[in-house]
Amino acid sequence: MNIFKILLFSALFSISIKAQKVKAIDTLNCPISQNNILLAGKGFASTPPILLRVFNEDFEYSVVQFGKRKRKIYLYFKIFTDNVCVKQKQPLKLNFKTGEMYMLKNSFSVNCDGTAIIQLRRRDRKKIMNNNINSIKFFTLKKDYEFNPNSADNQNIKEYLNCLKLYKVKNR
Question: Residue 40: pLDDT band by 50, 70, 90 thresholds?
Fold first, then answer.
């Protein structure tokens, strides 16, 4: 009879533990937004934008934003200057505080809107998560731009990537 009670108690205990499990995304304070707008018929989630000022310029700015579609995570980079034509193969070079350089390739077609869309592979995300970015160089056909994210920007980048990694995009 005692064995039966022990088995019953352990079964009830394991059921209550399973019911109490919390998703990892619920424990994080993730500012991810997803609305009813579809991108090519699929659901899409995004993080808040990170605004960066061009190094040694007063009135030139850009925005860095991360998004997720299906299981793929993207980095969106947009510079707010007229007639900025982006190179297709290698628009962004990340210089880390360790001195290491890392290139990100543009998966978006060549455009003169100043927009680069980069699908981040697992190794790209790991590299960004494990290092602090000292500077970002944005290569265009006429001029190359440099941005220096601060420690708060680096912290936001890591937090947003971690949140998107855990987030499940809802299909509408």
Answer: low
